[in-house]
Design goal:
single chain; 126 residues; alpha+beta
Length: 126
Amino acid sequence: MSVGPGLAATVELTVKDGDTAEALRSGDVPMLATPRVVALAEEACVAAVRDELDAGDTTVGVRVQLDHLLAVPVGRSVRAEAKLESIEGRRLTFVVSVNTERGLVAAGKVTRVIVARDRFVQKANE
């Protein structure tokens, strides 16, 4: 495993009807939903470390701290960036931001923990 601070990734999304607060039932406006912003930020975190984990390992989310600052309508594109800030044992903390051509959409931190995928799933199913 070569997971270390500084690993980063960017993912992009063009907002569709299914990404809105109306569709996800987190509100009643046709704008990018906060839960979808969180999912996009986590997707960037996963991408940042995916190729550096030991075979059979993955990460799972344990904490999200995010400020959603700007509404984004259907049809606009957003870009989520995640950068691994620190590591404490198996705990990884990422700084995340989501941007559009109009500016900062969301910013915060995401904490994920490295786990053995099969063991994690097995234990959850017991």
